[in-house]
Amino acid sequence: MTFVSRFVKDESGATAIEYGLIAAGIAVAIIGVLTTLGTNLTATFQSVADEMS
Known about the structure:
The chain contains 2 helices and no strands. The protein is mainly alpha-helical. The protein is rod-shaped, with a radius of gyration of 23 Å. The model has no long low-confidence stretch (mean pLDDT 89).
């Protein structure tokens, strides 16, 4: 019975899951920003290349 009560009160796993969710959210935001930035850079370099030719 004490094992069950200790298991229910233990919050260390919940904290690890919260940190994992925060890290995943930050990673998704970074990927989104880099994807947009890469697309904009590609368009910029393509327009420069078009003007030079």
